[in-house]
Design a protein that fits this description.
With 133 residues, the chain is mostly beta strands. The chain has one helix and eleven strands; from the N terminus they run βββαββββββββ. It has one helix at residues 29-35; strands spanning 3-6, 13-16, 22-26, 40-46, 50-54, 59-63, 70-74, 80-81, 83-85, 90-94, 108-110. 23% of the residues are buried.
């Protein structure tokens, strides 16, 4: 079963041709900066599973100096997209870049000691289907 993904503007599109091996929610400071939020939700698979359907030449990569941290994004709209890491052995796919829900659920929270101080309050907030009236 494959999974399709894309950026917000649709210029970058990709397919993941193998099952995801892991789904983690990361609270590290790098992922907070990347997402502009409390965490990043990332799926993991083998780099050979990544097949670019369109816009591979539009993908830009940011590598945090002296770390293994990589963020790949569409150079047109800035949306996070899949990337290869660890010398090409690993493919990391931002869950929000998928066009449909993944076949697996998150299995763990990572780097919780770095979690945003305000994150604990999120589960108690009111929920709205759109902007509140």
């Amino acid at each position: 079963m494959s999974a399709l993904g894309s950026c917000s503007c649709g210029a970058v599109r990709f397919e993941i041709t193998q099952p995801f091996t892991h789904f983690f929610v990361c609270h590290c400071s790098f992922c907070q900066k990347d997402s502009g939020s409390a965490f990043a939700a990332n799926l993991f698979t083998h780099v050979g599973a990544l097949r670019w359907l369109a816009g591979e030449e539009l993908v830009s990569n940011f590598r945090k100096a002296e770390t293994r941290h990589v963020r790949s994004f569409c150079s047109c709209c800035g949306s996070a997209v899949a990337n290869a890491q660890l010398g090409g052995d690993l493919c990391i796919v931002p869950a929000g870049s998928l066009d449909q829900a993944p076949a697996i659920l998150p299995e763990a929270h990572l780097f919780v000691n770095s979690a945003a101080a305000w994150e604990e309050s999120l589960s108690t907030l009111p929920r709205f289907s759109g902007f509140p009236q």
